[in-house]
Amino acid sequence: MRGVFREWFLSNDAGWDPRSYERYFGTPLGAAFRDREERVIFEFVGNLMRPRHSVLEVGCGTGNYTVPLARRCAEITAVDSSPEMRGYLRERLIRERVTGVEIRPGRLPDDLGALRGFDGVLSVGVLNYVEDLAASLRSLAAPLKPGGWIVFTVPLRSVEGGIYAAAELANRRRIYPRTFKEVSALTGRAGLKILESAAAGLTRSGLTLVVAAVERAGAPGAS
């Protein structure tokens, strides 16, 4: 019975409709959450990213972060497991005349290929759907240069996080909320040192945890 239930969920690279995704974030609820999350992410990235940096974005989606960051750094490699999302982003980059972005397929935790040598990694929303957080964090840390930075989000085990996980069942998606203590421990095991973190959401408890960390030279899992 458990196996049948697991098969009912969509795979992480299937069933994504970029335009429906963007329509949701155009609603009052979606726009309010995106605004709060963006404030934290852009603050963290702004503290770490330099114009000369090369950035790997894992889970680029429709390009909500790809486009503005591409205008602030040297180059971005944008990875997404969904062909529909990659196609939408290609069209958007042409429409908005954004250059310096390479789009590639990829999936966490073990399908980023031989990508290496990045100053920074950004991953927003992807770890929501990943059961093996430890392996995924190691995969995200592997492409970093020594001392490189990473900003990522994880759904929180909070009231908002629980509502979000329940709502995603209607979309046949499984969400994996975490506690800060759990995320902190696994981040350290991935060879990363947390610089700052903050909850983002519509209430004080937050829906997602935004984490900014740097590669810790010599640590297990460090590149």
Characterize this entry briefly:
With 223 residues, this protein is of the alpha/beta class. 37% of the residues lie in helices and 23% in strands. The protein has a 7-stranded mixed beta sheet with strand order 3-2-1-4-5-7-6, with helices on both faces.
How would you describe this protein?
- This protein has 223 residues and is an alpha/beta fold.
- The chain has a seven-stranded mixed β-sheet with strand order 3-2-1-4-5-7-6, sandwiched between helices.
- The radius of gyration is 17 Å and the shape is globular.
- It is 37% helix and 23% strand.
- It is built from eight helices and seven strands, in the order αααβαβαββαβααββ.
- α6 packs across α8 (180-189).
- β6 and β7 (208-215) form a beta hairpin.
Distance between the termini: 41 Å
**Principal-axes shape call:** globular
**Total of helices:** 8
Q: Could you spell the SSE succession in H and E letters?
A: HHHEHEHEEHEHHEE
Question: Care to count the β-strands?
Answer: 7
What is the radius of gyration?
Answer: 17 Å
What is the averaged pLDDT score?
88
Strand order of the largest sheet: 3-2-1-4-5-7-6
Which residues form runs of ≥5 with pLDDT under 50? 1-5, 218-223
- β content, as a range? 15-25%
Secondary-structure class: alpha/beta
Helix proportion of residues, in percent? 25-40%
The profile of the biggest β sheet is: 7 strands, mixed
